[in-house]
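The instructor's notes for this session suggest beginning with a concrete chain rather than abstract definitions. Hand out the sequence below and ask the class to guess, before any prediction is shown, which regions might be ordered.
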Amino acid sequence: MRRVSYLLVALALLTVIFPAFAQSAAPEQNPPADETQLLKNSEAFVRKLFAWGPEFQVKLGPASQSQAPGYYLVPVQITFGGQSDTGVLYISKDGKTLLRGELFDTSADPFAGNRAKLHPDGNPSRGPADARVTLVEFSDFQCPHCRQLYEAMKTLGPRYPQIRIVFKDLPIAAIHPWAETASLGGRCAYMQSPDAFWQIHDALFENQEFISAANIWDRLVELADQAGLDKDVFKACLASPEAGKGIEANIEDAKVLSVNSTPTVFVNGRPVVGGDPTTLQQYIDYELGGKQATQSPAKPAQSPGQKPAQKPAAKP
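After discussion, reveal the predicted structure:
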């Protein structure tokens, strides 16, 4: 299930592109002359623009010089119903113009920054370590949309044996009560045997509807036994802080990358929120040089007697 993100709904991407900042003009270092009034006026405007009433907590600032001449970079945080998200705004120095979205330097690789923050090493992976294309998936074992991506990857993965697929945990415990325990089980399996992780990974998604917060522990121990793991070592790992460290690191990476829903997949650093198989194939083909770009989109595999995966709900 995708977590409702009010900021992302309101601050829908509107890309603003300025060419080669570093070569055209160096950012100024002076702070806004009257930052307090600038932010106060900007907050009033965005509240009106997005209908953010008093039940929304809005925090803008501090303002800093952006790479775009004439504009300040202003972080914005919105909190509603106990959930928070962040983004950025670009506000002109005279306070009369506001831009929302992303700012790109057209002289640089737009996804190099993402790749540097993904930290795939130390996580379960399939495929050659030196692959030209790496998919990094942030996933939640209890998430229905993640299961749909799992089904799609049964076809898409084998179609591209030359790519590397990396799994990173992002359990959303607020709405998925057994997801974090499942991530601990997967991590403990990986620590004993990387191959065993994928057996448990597949079994968790295949049996998602039969797992609950009440039986997840027993299910994990059963799956570990079926995968040939040492059950005593596995159970001790579940109760220790070691496995949790890897999960916490992945959650922190997700925050740095502004990933707040599952599944989110990065194809050589290029984000695919929701993990749409057709989009994934398009990006993979592009990164491989377009050799397979004309082939029809991959369809999710379906086991005999298995109900078709439900179509993902429309994103708000």
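Then share the key points. The chain is about 40% helix and 20% strand. The two ends are 12 Å apart (CA to CA).
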